[in-house]
């Protein structure tokens, strides 16, 4: 049953290519590809499967959003913005010099 639900959300079908890191949220998954670009797949109700362009060194997926550290140290977040989480994380990174 769980596998069927994940299949319907698109989580079981990653994009083509090789990955160096993976992280999974509630109904979406993201990975850093060998070229350092991020690809996400699965449920995209809140934009959580639409990462920004650029190259990343680390990522973490949460319930319905994800955040990543770009190669020059700045933070990028995408997806649901419940309680301002995405905006707060991005603002904290800018205050810290990211």
Q: How does the SSE layout of this entry go?
A:
Layout: H1 2-9, E1 19-24, E2 28-33, E3 38-42, E4 56-61, E5 65-70, E6 75-79, H2 85-95
Antiparallel strand pairs: 1-2, 2-3, 4-5, 5-6
- Percent helix among the residues? 10-25%
Can you give the mean pLDDT?
A: 81
- Count of extended strands: 6
Q: What is the succession of H and E elements?
A: HEEEEEEH
Which class best fits the helix and strand makeup?
Answer: alpha+beta
- The poorly predicted ranges are 92-98
Quaternary structure type: single chain
**How would the global form be characterised?**
globular
Radius of gyration: 13 Å
Strand order of the largest sheet: 1-2-3
Largest sheet: 3 strands, antiparallel
Percentage of residues in strands? 25-35%
Q: Kindly, what is the distance between the CA atoms of the first and last residues, rounded to a whole number of angstroms?
A: 42 Å
Per DSSP, the total helix count is 2
Structure, explained:
This protein is α+β, with helices and mostly antiparallel strands and 98 residues long. Helices cover 19% and strands 35% of the residues. It has helices at 2-9, 85-95; strands spanning 19-24, 28-33, 38-42, 56-61, 65-70, 75-79. The protein has a 3-stranded antiparallel beta sheet. A 3-stranded antiparallel beta sheet has the order 4-5-6. Strand 4 and strand 5 form a beta hairpin. The chain is globular and about 30 Å long. 28% of the residues are buried. The model is unreliable at 92-98 (pLDDT under 50).
